[in-house]
Automatic annotation (TrEMBL):
The keyword Methyltransferase is assigned to this record: no
PANTHER family attached to this UniProt entry: SLR0285 PROTEIN (PTHR43432:SF3)
InterPro entries, per database record: Hint_dom_C (IPR003586), Hint_dom_N (IPR003587), Hint_dom_sf (IPR036844), Homing_endonucl (IPR027434), Intein_C (IPR030934), Intein_N (IPR006141), LAGLIDADG_dom (IPR004860), MJ0683-like (IPR040086)
Protein keywords: Autocatalytic cleavage, Iron, Iron-sulfur, Metal-binding, Protein splicing
Keyword Iron assigned: yes
Gene3D superfamilies listed in its UniProt record: 3.80.30.30, Hedgehog/Intein (Hint) domain
Organism from which the protein derives: Asanoa iriomotensis
Region listing for Disordered, in residue ranges: 620-645
The name this protein goes by in its record: Radical SAM protein
One Pfam family from the record: LAGLIDADG_3
Domain Hint: 82-188, 344-388
Matches recorded under CDD domains: Hint (cd00081)
């Protein structure tokens, strides 16, 4: 356990604005006060409020960072987004069947998608994590009648990329979101599986008895044996005779069973064509009649190549074929695969409306190997799983985004430790592990207390952030800068808004960060911009670097430094999954570049640094004093790289 420097927070210091407490985190932090908040932006998140025993932390001696001391008032990051769906949402399994989202377990094999060439394609992936939360629910209704109940944060794949269920066109909550002009990608709502009735079983046995050849697939044989063992004696005698006749009056259950049985006996599905063949025209006619009664489109043809048989083929694309497989439920899973098929659809999946249900519902989410899954027939985004919380004995996925450790006594601890005789007034770096100006800071307001203490003790410090909440504390920063050295830096790795939505969806946009740089600069601060992390193959080209440096110069930055992507353990696994999902063609390149560990090869780092320096010269940001903080006599050396987190 790694909680030795933490203790439970007495209830008396819990803010009154907190919602009712949730149970403490099992095992990892017994007795901690856990809070959830009604604010939609924190839906699904739990804040574990603790009283830390120390706050100014010594950086390990083997660290490559250019500073010795740091303050981290938070563990975990509320910048991250969470996504979730209603528990009864049907998920497409690897065996071609469906299961409710709430009933999935870690290790289940399901379908996701990966980009391959021009198209995304269906592939089998694995459930890596599964959890439940409670959030305000929305209903998304599509033109084909598909309904999806999800949180406002959830994302679906549209013809124009990933989009959240809700959002705004401007302001702090601006993000791509579903509108009536969007079309979701997939096949639309799944058909329900047939009921296990006597009529269905009789129909299945009848269909199996019409097979032209011996059935060798074990799954249909096991189902047939089970049904026969439980069938009335008359049905068993007909089966022994080799042919079961259809009843005079057919129910839909019987038709579904018949189609499943005859498909198991004489059908085929190669991913693009689903058909049932027979040398007996009567069997083909019965199958065609059942398809017609159940609303399928089909064609009947003679077998080619001189054959003397017939076949009936289901038409209508993958949506129709999946409807057949789900509605009839044949036993042979080998005939149900869609792996490798392109993500295409002729189904009308246009968004008709997105409406709030007005209630909080239990919602569920999973993490998969591909980063997505097929939910009620459409491609659904899942939560990114990151291993960066494991040093707190929390799980490697959802906990990082949803379980935030808040050291509520950070301000008083800073003041106490700065006054200790052993403290020698050394430089303190903040924002180097997780962002001190993440969204949770807007509620807990720990930084004003920390900055006040640093100001009162005239202790030099620096802040690296992606958050715009730092502007709230501008008066305190100005006061501190009048008595000590204050260094401010913004991390802006690129200015491509679409890439930002894919890489850092929970952070302020590059545009908003650049606006913050301008305001801090106007207040008299020298604000450095870290063009970081620079992503190989994505933002390391001259065009991307030039655009980022030009934007930083226009915002008034005092200087720029390029820092390449650092993939330490934990972040490495998360980033690899993201890369494989979003840019699979780059995976071999990353394997080669990072085969030596967390850092890029030295020559590659030098090449990236050179590109940044050239751009800096073009825009007048190459002066030696660019990163001198206000009144700081000696700036710590810059780190070689910056972690993605």
């Amino acid at each position: 356990m790694r909680w030795d420097n933490l203790s439970a927070l007495p209830a008396s210091v819990v803010p009154d604005r907190a919602a009712p407490a949730t149970p403490p985190l099992p095992l990892a932090l017994p007795g901690a006060v856990a809070r959830t908040f009604d604010t939609p932006g924190f839906a699904g998140m739990t804040f574990y409020e603790v009283r830390a025993k120390s706050i100014i932390n010594k950086v390990p001696g083997n660290s490559r960072m250019g500073f010795d001391w740091t303050i981290n008032p938070y563990r975990g990051c509320s910048h991250a987004c969470t996504y979730c769906l209603a528990g009864d949402t049907q998920i497409l399994l690897a065996d071609g069947r469906t299961r409710a989202l709430r009933d999935l377990v870690v290790g289940d094999r399901i379908y996701g998608t990966v980009r391959s060439g021009t198209y995304r394609r269906y592939v089998v992936t694995e459930v890596l994590a599964h959890w439940q939360t409670t959030k305000p629910a929305y209903r998304v209704t599509l033109a084909d009648g598909t309904e999806l109940v999800a949180s406002g944060d959830h994302r679906f794949l549209t013809e124009r990329g990933w989009k959240h269920v809700t959002g705004t066109m401007g302001g702090a909550d601006q993000r791509p979101h579903l509108t009536s002009g969007n079309k979701l990608m997939g096949v639309g709502r799944f058909a329900p599986a047939p009921a296990d009735t006597a009529d269905y079983r009789a129909g299945y046995l009848c269909g199996m008895s019409r097979g032209d050849a011996s059935v060798t697939d074990r799954e249909p044989l096991r189902r047939t044996g089970r049904y026969l063992a439980e069938a009335p004696p008359a049905v068993a005698r007909l089966a022994a005779a080799g042919r079961i006749a259809a009843p005079a009056v057919l129910s839909d259950d019987w038709r579904k069973g018949f189609l499943a049985g005859v498909f198991d006996a004489s059908g085929s599905h190669d991913g693009t064509t689903l058909r049932i063949g027979s040398i007996d025209r009567e069997t083909i006619d019965e199958a065609a009649a059942a398809l017609r009664a159940l609303g399928f489109d089909f064609v009947v043809r003679r077998t080619g190549g001189g054959g003397r048989g017939w076949y009936v083929r289901v038409v209508g694309g993958l949506a129709a074929r999946l409807r057949f497989l789900h509605l009839t439920d044949p036993a042979a899973t080998s005939k149900r695969s869609i792996e490798g098929l392109a993500l295409k659809s002729n189904v009308p999946l246009d968004v008709l409306k997105v409406e709030p249900l007005g209630i909080d519902l239990p919602l569920y989410d999973i993490t998969t190997g591909t980063g997505d899954f097929i939910a009620n027939g459409v491609v659904s985004h899942n939560c990114f799983a990151r291993n960066t919380h494991t040093y707190l004995d929390l799980d490697a996925g959802h906990d990082f985004d949803s379980k935030i450790i808040v050291k509520v006594n950070a301000g008083e601890l800073v003041r106490k430790e700065l006054s200790a005789r052993r403290w020698r007034g050394e430089h303190i770096a903040m924002g180097t592990n997780v962002d001190v100006y993440q969204r949770a800071e807007g509620r807990y307001r720990l930084m004003p207390q920390i900055l006040s203490a640093l100001r009162d003790f005239a202790n030099p410090f620096s802040i690296l952030t992606k958050g715009t909440l730092i502007l709230r504390d501008l008066p305190l920063l100005t006061q501190a800068a009048s008595v000590t050295s204050v260094g401010l830096s913004y991390s802006i790795g690129f200015v491509d808004e679409e890439l930002w939505r894919r890489v850092e969806p929970g952070t302020p946009s590059p545009r908003r960060r650049l606006d913050a740089v301008r305001r801090l600069t106007d207040a008299g601060f020298k604000v450095g911009v870290l063009v970081a992390p620079i992503l190989p193959g994505l933002t390391d080209d001259e065009e991307s670097i030039d655009a980022a440096v030009a934007a930083a110069a226009a915002a008034g930055a005092s200087g720029v430094t390029g820092i390449a992507l650092h993939l330490r353990p934990g972040t490495r696994e998360w980033y690899a999954k993201w890369l494989g999902r979003e840019f699979p063609d780059l995976v071999p390149r990353y394997r080669a570049l990072y085969r030596g560990g967390s850092y890029l090869p030295k020559e590659y780092q030098r090449e990236i640094t050179a590109r940044v320096r050239q751009a800096a010269r073009r825009y007048g940001l190459d002066r030696q004093d660019n990163f001198e903080p206000r009144q700081l006599p000696e700036q710590p050396p810059e780190p070689e790289q910056l972690t993605l987190l």
